[in-house]
Fold:
Amino acid sequence: MRKMEVIKGSFAFEGIVTGEVFLDKKKYIDEGITAILDEKDVENEIERFERALELSKESLEDLRTSFAGKMNEHDLEIITAHMMILDDPIYVSDIKKSIKKDKLRAEEAVKLITTKYVKMFKNIQNPEYRQKELDIKDVGKRIVGNLDKRFEDWKKLDGKILVTEEIFPTELLNIYHLGIKIKGIVMEYGGETSHLAILAKALEIPTLMGIKNIFSYNWGKDIILDTTEINSCVIIEPDEKTKKEYENLLEKFELKKEEIKRDANLPTETLDGEKVSLYINVSGDLDSEEVRTLKPDGIGLLRTELLYMKNTSFPDEENQFKVYSGIVEKFDKDSSIIIRTLDIGADKQLPYFKMKNETNSFLGLRGIRFSLQNQDIFITQLKAILRAAYNRNVKIMYPMVTNISELREANKLLERAKEELKEENKLYKEEIEIGVMIEVPSIVMMADVFAQEVDFFSIGTNDLTQYILATDRLSETVSSMYDCYNPAVLRSIAFVKKAADLYGKKVSVCGEMAGDAKAIVAFLSMGIKDLSMVGTSILAARSLIRSLNYDKLKEIKEKLLLCHDSKEVKEILIKYIN
Ligand code: PEP
Ligand code: MG
Structure:
C-alpha cells in the first residue's frame, strides 16, 4: 500500500476540498519542433492560423462580455492586454513568416515565435516584465488551444482538482466562462501576489501554489486539498484517520464561512466592545458594489500609481481630480480617505518616463524622493487631491519618507499648491491632515520626531519588512528570508506605536500583512486598531475581530516582542487564534 504524503505550499484562496485529480502535464509552448510542411500545405496552414487568431479574439470578447459587471474592471484589464498582443502586426507576421520560411505547422510556428518573445522578456532583468512574459505565453496557449482543440480537454476538468505547472489567468476565466467548475488548483508556479492569485481569489477557487517539481509526485486518484492559512497543504493518498479528521475540519470550515457571512453586517468590534476600523486598499478602480457589501470604514491606502501607469503621459490636474473625486464619492461624507502621493520608482515604472538605471533601485529614486525632484508633477497631483478633498474627510500621505527635511519640503510644496488653487478661484480643502508611510528604518528610529510634525502614521509592512531585514521583496533567491513575522519587524511596529502615543497620533497598517489573521491579532495586542487591506480580506477580518477579547490580547504583546524568531511568533499567534 502507498504511504500518505503531505506537501506544503502557499495559498491564494482558502478552502478545503477533496476530490479527483486532473493532471495537466501537456506543455503547450516549449515542445520540440517536429513536422516540416510540403510547399503545397503552406497556404492551408496560414489559413488555419488566421482562423485560430480570429477564434482567439472572439473568445476574449466573449469573456469580456460575460464578466462585465461581475468582476472588478481592473481585473479584466488583462483581456485588453491580450487583445493587443493578438493585434500586434509584428507578432502575427513573425508567425506567418515562420510557417512560410521554416515550413512549420501553425501550432509549431506559434510555439516557436511565442517562446522567442517569452525569452526576450525573461532576459530583461526587470520584475515588471514578468507580467508581459506571462501575457504572451497565455496568448500563445490560447491560439494553440484553438488550433489543436485543446479547450475540448478542459471539459474533463469539471468537478476535479487541477494539478499543473502553471495555468494562465485568461485560461482560468475561459474555463469559468464555459461553466466548468474547478474544485481546486495545485500548481508549481508560486506568485502569491500574481494576477492569477488575484483571480483565484475573485473566483473563490481554493488554490495552492509553489509546489516545486510538481510532476515528481505520484498524484494517484484522490487528494485532499487544504488551502487554509494554518495548514496550506495537499495530501496524497490520505489514510482513514486523516480522512476522518478532515470530515471534522471541513464541517468547522463551513461553519466558519457561515459565521463570516453572518458577521458581514455587524459592527467591527471585539467581544469586549472595542471598536476596530477596517479600511480598504484601492489600487485602481473601486466597485461601488464592494463598498456596499464589505462596508469598509473608508480607504486606508489609495495607491495612485496605476492612474499614472495607465496613461501615455503624466495625467493632468483635471484628469486626476475626476478620478480621485469619483472614488471619494463612493463613500459617506465623513469616511476617512487616505490618498497616497505618487510612489513611483524601483518595481513601479512609467512607460513614458525613462528613469536612470540604478544598481539598487529600491534604495534609489522612489516615492517622495521622485516627487521632490519633479516638483511640477508633484504640485499637479497635490492640487488634484486638495480639490477632491473639498468638504470631505480626505487626507494626504507621503510614501518612502526617510528624513524630516523631506516632510518639510513636501509640506512647503503643498502650501504652494494651495496658493495656486486660491489664485485660480478653485474650491479646495485648506485644513488637510498629513501623514507619512512608515517604510524605512530611519523613520522608525525617528518616529517621535515625526510624530510632532504629522497627523498620522501608516505602516507599510511590505517595504518595512524589506528594509528592516535588508531582503529584496521581489527576489526569489531570498524569498524565505522575507518574513514580516520576523520579531525585528514586530518590534519596529511596536516602537512606532509607542512614539505616536506620546503625541496622541494615530497609527494604522496598510501593508498586505494587515489582512492576515495572525497579524490582526498581533496588531490589536499592540493597540493598533486601524487596519487597511484588500477587499477580499475584510469580511474574514471583521469576523475574526468579533471573536477576540481585546483586553486579554494585551497579554501576548510582550511575549511576541520577546520571541527569538518568526517561528515562535507564528506559533503564539496561531495558538491564540485556535
Ligand atoms: C507597503 O510598502 O507596505 C505599501 C503598502 O506600499 P506598496 O506595497 O505600494 O509599496
Ligand atoms: Mg511601499
